[in-house]
Amino acid sequence: MSTRDKLVELQETLYRSSNPTRRWLHCSRRDWIINAIENTPRPGNQAALEVGPGAGVYLPTLARLFERVVAVDIEEAYLSHLSSVTAMFPNLSVRLDDITESELPDQAFDLVLCTEVVEHIPDSQPAIREMRRILKPGGVLVLSTPQRYSPLELTAKIAFLPGIIEVVRLIYKEPVLKTGHINLMTAAEMTRQLTGAGFSIDASHKSGMYIPLLAEFAGETALRIEQWFERHLYGGRFDGLLWTQYYIARA
């Protein structure tokens, strides 16, 4: 199985993981983003873009809400995995495009979705500026990315070391691959990039607490403890420990 196929398999596995913490972290992020797509006011429902759609989790929601949906990725091989989704929705198309220097036209979309993408781009500022350019006036960007100092990201630096990753895979008994996160930002850094590109931020959110070892070995008990910490950390000085930061930003 190619690395590409493994990545797609991983993305599909995360939402039904047998590990309660792993499943919760990804399902809660998915649910927040879908709610944002469905309930955020925007100029219209003509066109939406998803940057880096991965396994296509959000494309059915976009295709249901918008007359035309475009999904772009820098590698055609990833887009080829979306054939089953595109077959279901005639208003959905995929195309090669590098969002850091996009060929998409100015002011073409009512909504742009970019979830778990910018952390894979060495310099995300050009990508943010391009997403601002292709949005209509008043158009909405829904974006999520991990937080730099969350325990999950810090632990990942150790978990993927040779010898340790094999043990991690034995514990989870599910696909576990390197994250490829090369551009982790704090909330302050992400906010600067958005406002610097000309966005105004309508709303922001943070979620997802991960406690190493407890998450792997304490099952549902670990999940309840992590959810307690999430509730009590959110909005405070230590909410940079939560895994994911979210933004609804307006062009």
How many helices? Answer: 11
CATH architecture grouping: 3-Layer(aba) Sandwich
The biggest beta sheet is recorded as: 7 strands, mixed
Radius of gyration: 18 Å
Q: Return the CATH topology.
A: Rossmann fold
What is the element string, with H for helices and E for strands?
HHEHEHHEEHEHHHEHHE
Please give the alpha-carbon distance between the first and last residues: 41 Å
* CATH-level-4 superfamily name: Vaccinia Virus protein VP39
Low-confidence stretches: none
Total domains: 1
Number of strands: 7
In terms of structural class, how would the helical and strand content be classed? Answer: alpha/beta
Question: What general form does the structure show?
Answer: globular
Helix fraction bin: 40-55%
% residues in beta strands: 15-25%
CATH top level label: Alpha Beta
In the sheet with the most strands, the strands line up as 3-2-1-4-5-7-6
Mean pLDDT: 92
Describe the structure.
This protein is α/β, with parallel strands linked by helices and 251 residues long. The chain has one domain (3-250): Vaccinia Virus protein VP39 (Rossmann fold), CATH 3.40.50. 43% of the residues lie in helices and 20% in strands. The chain is built from 11 helices and 7 strands. It has helices at residues 3-14, 20-39, 59-65, 76-80, 83-88, 125-134, 151-159, 164-172, 187-196, 214-217, 219-233, and strands at residues 47-51, 68-73, 92-96, 109-115, 135-146, 200-207, 244-250. The chain has a 7-stranded mixed β-sheet, sandwiched between helices. Helix 6 (125-134) links the parallel strand 4 (109-115) and strand 5 (135-146). The protein is globular.
